[in-house]
Specification:
single chain; 3-stranded antiparallel β-sheet; Glutaredoxin
């Protein structure tokens, strides 16, 4: 039997997928109580986003997409809380859109004041691709995930997000700060 170059490529690709599948299948998204994984990206405005550099502040990290109605409904709430807690809390939004939908993501992001960018353009992403959208992580000042808020658990409410932020402010060794009104 003669094996052609094309057959070798298919065989190698199949072997590579078979060997990597258990790794991909076992990779669970980060959970509350775990250290936040590495994440670096660039905002649509060109600013660097580095989760490790934000230690000392509570971070609200929201994964969203331009086509996701619940995501777009949450964005004004996230923006309001970003402004109210601006001295102690950083809100970041990363679009899980495909690169070809970048223009839609940029257009929608103009409605908020917090930094937004593309997850597909992240330099490092230990969070992986979200399995559900919207997905929000609240990370305390010490860099530990304090809360994971998923769309499957119902729409994100202001009281739920505010309670998660307040808990993170207490957990990370920070004193809570009343939001700026």
């Amino acid at each position: 039997m003669q094996v052609t170059f094309s057959d070798r490529r298919r065989l190698l690709l199949g072997l590579a997928l078979a060997l990597s599948f258990p790794l991909l299948a076992s990779a669970a998204p980060p959970a509350a109580g775990q250290p936040a994984p590495a994440l670096t990206a660039v905002s649509f405005a060109g600013a660097n986003i580095d989760l490790a550099a934000l230690r000392g502040k509570v971070v609200v990290l929201n994964f969203w997409a331009s086509w996701c109605e619940p995501c777009r409904r949450e964005m004004p709430l996230l923006d309001s809380l970003a402004q109210q807690y601006h001295e102690r809390v950083v809100v970041l939004g990363l679009s899980a859109d495909d690169r070809h939908d970048r223009k839609d993501a940029v257009n929608i992001s103009h409605a908020v004041s917090y930094p937004t960018g593309m997850l597909a353009e992240a330099g490092s992403n230990g969070f992986g691709m979200p399995q559900v959208l919207p997905l929000t992580y609240v990370i305390d000042a010490s860099g530990r995930i304090s809360a994971v808020l998923r769309a499957s658990e119902g729409a994100l409410t202001e009281s739920q997000l505010r309670a998660s932020i307040e808990a993170a402010l207490h957990e990370g060794g920070s004193n809570p700060v009343a939001p700026v009104r």
